[in-house]
Amino acid sequence: MTMALPSGGLLAASDSNALKDFINLICEPHWFFIISCAGLGVFLAGYRTLTKPAVAWIALVVFTLAYVLSALDPDFRSIIVKPDNVPITIMMYLVGFFLWLAFRQAAVNDEKMASGRPLTEAGSDDKVLVWPDLVYIELIALVFCTVALMVWTVILRAPLEQPADPSVAPNPAKAPWYFLGLQELLVYFDPWIAGVLLPGLIVVGLIAIPYMDKNPRGNGYYTFVERRFAITTFMVGFVILWVVLIVFGTFLRGPNWNFFGPYEYWDPHRPAALVNINLAQIFWVQMLGRGIPTEGFAFIPHYVIRELPGIVILVFYFLVLPGILRRTVFNRMGNQMGAVRYHLMAQLFLWMAFVPIKMVLRWTLNFKYFVAITEFFLNF
Amino acid sequence: MSVFDRFGNWVRGGQVWGSVFRHGVPRDRRTRAMAILSNVFLHLHPVAIRKSGIRLSFTWCMGGLTFFLFLIEVVTGVLLMFYYRPTVEYAYFDIEGLRAHVTLGLLREMHRWGAHAMVIAIWLHMLRVFLTGSYKPPREFNWSIGVILLVLTLLLSFTGYLLPWDQLAMWAITVGSNMARATPLLGHEGPLASLVMVGDVPLVHAGDDARFGLLAGTFVGPNALLRFYVLHCVFIPVVATILIAVHFWRIRKDGGVSGPL
Description:
The structure holds two protein chains of two kinds. By secondary structure, chain A is mainly α. Among the domains of chain A are: 13-121 and 220-257, no CATH class; 279-379, no CATH class. In chain A, 62% of the residues lie in helices and 2% in strands. Chain A has 15 helices and three strands. Chain A has a two-stranded antiparallel ribbon with strand order 2-3. In chain A, a hairpin with a 4-residue loop joins strand 2 and strand 3. The longest helix of chain A has 29 residues, at 86-114. Chain A is globular, with a radius of gyration of 25 Å. Chain B is an all-alpha fold. Chain B has a single domain (49-253), classed as Cytochrome Bc1 Complex, Chain C, CATH 1.20.810. In chain B, helix 8 runs antiparallel to helix 11. The N and C termini of chain B lie far apart (50 Å). Classes of the chains: A mainly alpha, B mainly alpha. Chains A and B meet through helix 6, strand 1, helix 7, helix 9 and helix 10 of A and helix 3, strand 1, helix 4, helix 5 and helix 6 of B.
């Protein structure tokens, strides 16, 4: 339902509405996610061409144009002008710019290495005095930062809503913007996974990166060819699972945490007609055509039998798959790392992959849990 | 020689100036080195640095800006503490009065936007360090400290979010802290917590679980406000300051700004 008024401007009302409907459609979770991943994949595959300044300028202009035209829509505008959402606009531009800057330099360095010329960062013995060369750069950076912050301070008031009232819950109740990616995970995982286990694994995983990455190359300069796996994995985590999920949670999640297209009115009464089903239901009822087991067998409690298909899948995924990967795609890396490092990396990697797997299954099959032992809140 | 030059020379030649800056005007190699070595703040730097290490396109200056934003937060935060009382009766109206009646009441805006900017800056700093492979030996440990500092930055921002005590604050913290009650074993709605009991008495319940520890109550109330205030203004900044010191010191000890080996 589009309650947005035709905004006029460049497009006739009917064209504009058709376009808005199309954009609302491709912003639906599975399309938004697939397009983001495809975009990242294309960027990493074609970074040498795509980071050429001309291409970057076109991307900047197209994105800005789309953003500004979108702001003509009252529903979209109401989201982006919220004071606490302004940092997200700033973040999107900064992340885009710095990704370009990093991969541009990686492209230049990779071409230099291919033709045997020295790196941009080469000449480590060339030293300059910190005074004046560095302290003046720092001074100028501080001045620019201060000026930017002052301008931001003067033109935008910090939000102050009604006094806190425990009896009036806003809908949607959103966490601070930098945690919206985690809040989005609550849709697909139980709170103890989304709110405790996954954040813990993120922190542990980040700390463990230098101890797992035994690739000696690419130390201290921009490159992509020398570190394809490490950089691709980090980019998926940083761009998709962090930035894209924040953008998603900010712009596309409305009342009751329902999905709303960017140009849709946030209707709090829109029903969410989703019935999510567990693997046990799919296996026992839909595939075998019988009831879900309710009886135990000997000393095995009934919930273990009921959840057997999910338990088998998860045991395979987390315990067998690392060994298979070790002998196939991760063969060379596994040899480099040694057993302990490899299995730590494999567990973290598989947990990271588990997140998009469950998200896609939810969007496509209304899939809820592989294993649902609700008796102990143990749901995966 | 103009009157200003003569005045400048008179100041620089006097005892006061000489006691503060124990070197001549930094115009040659020796005095420039002295300018760094004899200043407690500047001596965070080495005297000389790898040429590629100071290119703005290499470092983006993001680590430095994160630290600078931290300092801005400290200064504006201390000034805000003069006006703000962390109690349910006063908190909201102190903030309201701050924007309506106080000269330079814009400090709260600077504090809030500076906090957002710091979160963005520290992410970009991490992105830069990762993409240049600067976490690789010998800098592994400093990367780990950096990750902790990232978490502390998010926690600083999160604890500060509650202090205005408006609807936005209270419900964002309610959403965030609800996660804690699902902590395995330690949260009363977490997995396996129902197994922790003595006889028939559950040891983990809403009145003593992880969420209770965070909020000092079963809901976001006056105790939570005080607790977040102390965490925000004292505890986390002190821990962050110590780790920042270690972080900077390790940059020097691990060979300075990274470059090709």
